[in-house]
Amino acid sequence: MMASLHPLLVLSLLLLLSPLGTLADDGHPPSKPIVTLIHKDSSFYTIPVKDGAPLVLDLAGSLVWTTTCPPSHRRVPCKSSVCKVAHRSLPASCASSANGGQPGNSDDPNCACAAYPYNPTSGQCGSGDLTTVPLSANATDGKSPLFPVSFSTYVACAPDGLLTSLPSGAAGVAGLSRMPLSLPSQVAKRLKVAKEFALCLPGGGEPGAAIFGGGPFELPSFPPGIFDFADAIRKNPTRLLKNPKNGAYYFGVQGIAVNQVAVPVAAGALALDRRQGTGGVVFSTVTPYTTLRSDVYLALINAFDAATSGIARRKPIPPFQLCYESSAFSYTRVGPGVANIDLMLDGGGNWTLPGGISLVQVDGATLCFAFDMMSPEQSAAANAPAIIFGAYQMENNLMLFDLEKSTFGASGLLSGMRTGCYNFASMA
Q1: To 10 degrees, the CA torsion angle through 43, 45, 50, 53?
Q2: Within 13 Å and on the Cβ side, how many CA atoms surround 334?
Q3: Domain covering 232-411, topology
Q4: Would you state the CATH architecture of domain 34-212?
Q5: Ranges for the Xylanase inhibitor C-terminal domain (predicted)?
Q6: What pLDDT digit, counting tens, does each position of 250-301 carry?
């Protein structure tokens, strides 16, 4: 009966019922993946796992943090092993925070662990207690919701001022990195499920979904039938690269092509320098559009400009530098018919970006090249990558990250299979 209800209502009911549902910390974890809705708010993506209060998704975030810690919350001792874990790979702005990022006064037997939550959009770092709070979601079999699950999670308490630049109503950030206190790592440990998660970022008014713990993801698709998207993605994984300077997700790109013609970038321009922690291509859910270092961006936009020279232009609309008459395009299930962009991956494969990923509709008459150029300050920042693969380019794809195997995979635009992220939301 519940499965026939609207998914938003289902999630609300499950969150309300979760204290009476299956508890993951009672010694008998359900060992089922969990799923929650993803909502798009402005340029951010949020999940309602903390008492229904939205947490912003940050693929590079090392912690879960919130401004809604209870006044009488439990304080983690500063000498505990989890406190030491909480201080790994602090962002540069956090390393210079109060106490220098140290766990606390080791001479005080009652000292509490100080954690350093980080706002990925403003670059601000706060400080607050490390504590545990219950988070709630819904178990799934990959096809439909099963039962509510509540599980204890380490979070950093943060001051209200750290919410600056985040969407109104957001209560904090859910870090999704490979670090031990990220949400995927904690879910895997608490619920005894696979150390794997999937994101289907929505592009419009309908919600998407986040699935933690593996499983099949079965949906109706075209041609007619039930299709297991997870199985298809796992058959062709791409290796993730590790940057020792942070816990973000990098992948190797040898070059870029437009309309099957190589873009002229210097040899090694896209490589990750593991020793310095610079360069490479990194995923980001808090960067709205894929953003490239100036040398790479200029080569790419010039190649795309040349490949689309016969298409009527419109005046650029910032931040975009190349825009077109939207009426000049024919349309397919994967967006405007335009020259494809191919990322030539390590290992010999290509990741093809069709018009629905390379172009964005900015008003009723205008489509723009959906890539941005890094500022000089961004390029000069510590650990600056060559390319930040932004959220728009991940929208309406099922993105699967396997932390154990250090691989990822993408479904391709779901509209090409006549489905979408809104269908994954029905699992929640």
Answers
A1: 40
A2: 18
A3: Cathepsin D, subunit A; domain 1 (2.40.70)
A4: Beta Barrel (2.40)
A5: 248-409
A6: 999 999 999 999 999 999 999 999 999 999 999 999 999 999 999 999 999 9
